[in-house]
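Tokens in:
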């Protein structure tokens, strides 16, 4: 798929993967609409893309606000044209284990990580089906493949995204709309900045954006990267529970020292 002359909309574009992907797609000739809650950071992104010769518009919206998100996407489409590529990227992470459970954290992650994808897709899918063309993309995580100690809510919401994308992909396979689920490993973003545990194969966000853009051009069904971490994650599926439990206990026992 050629990006030239096409329109992309990206949620959660004020930082991290979303920000870098917006810049990368603009460099590749796409007209880009960016959505996030933080207006100042969005305007900085808009200035950067325009300074580099790209075409971009921004809208402030929260992906948990169904009506507000739809209005933001519709406003961008009026300015930029029909949306060819929707990237539902907005996401958050919080510790959610068994003791304490942090139920409010699970609720927040469900609203942002999962329902945020549903609402983003809803805002463009009817028009894509009418035109018989389009591409829906959700940014999930390799954490979707295994329930990890202390991250029950995050893993569950990302697993939900994977299943949702798979169901839509199968249903829409002959209707002109592609669906891609992107599952990155550890990316250097504000979400990972304060993490103290081991993050193997940590990748910068700009490099991740280039790899994602390459995958979206090919319209792959699922894109897991980096591949070495993906292999490790698949292996953990077969590990006995006590191995992961001991590992988690060692991580939790590590406290920062001055």
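Residues out:
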């Amino acid at each position: 798929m050629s990006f030239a002359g096409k329109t992309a909309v990206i949620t959660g574009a004020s930082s991290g993967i979303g920000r870098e992907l917006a810049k990368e797609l603009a460099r590749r000739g796409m007209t880009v609409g960016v959505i996030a809650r933080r207006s100042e950071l969005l305007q900085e992104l808009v200035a950067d893309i325009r300074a580099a010769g790209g075409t971009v518009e921004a809208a402030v919206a929260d992906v948990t606000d169904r009506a507000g998100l739809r209005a933001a996407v519709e406003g961008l489409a009026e300015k930029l044209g029909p949306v060819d590529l929707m990237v539902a990227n907005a996401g958050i992470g919080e510790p959610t284990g068994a003791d304490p459970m942090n139920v409010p954290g699970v609720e927040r992650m469900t609203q942002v990580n999962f329902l945020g994808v549903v609402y983003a897709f809803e805002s463009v899918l009817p028009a894509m089906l009418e035109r018989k063309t389009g591409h829906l993309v959700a940014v999930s995580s390799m954490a979707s493949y295994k329930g990890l100690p202390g991250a029950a809510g995050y893993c569950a919401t990302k697993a939900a995204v994977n299943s949702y994308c798979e169901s839509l992909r199968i249903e829409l396979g002959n209707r002109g709309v592609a669906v891609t689920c992107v599952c990155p490993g550890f990316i250097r973003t504000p979400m990972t900045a304060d993490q103290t545990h081991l993050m193997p194969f940590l990748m910068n966000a700009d490099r991740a954006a280039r790899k994602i853009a390459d995958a979206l051009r090919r319209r792959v069904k699922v894109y897991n990267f980096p591949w070495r971490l993906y292999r490790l994650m698949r292996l953990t599926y077969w590990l006995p529970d006590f191995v992961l439990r001991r590992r988690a206990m060692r991580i939790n026992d590590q406290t920062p020292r001055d």
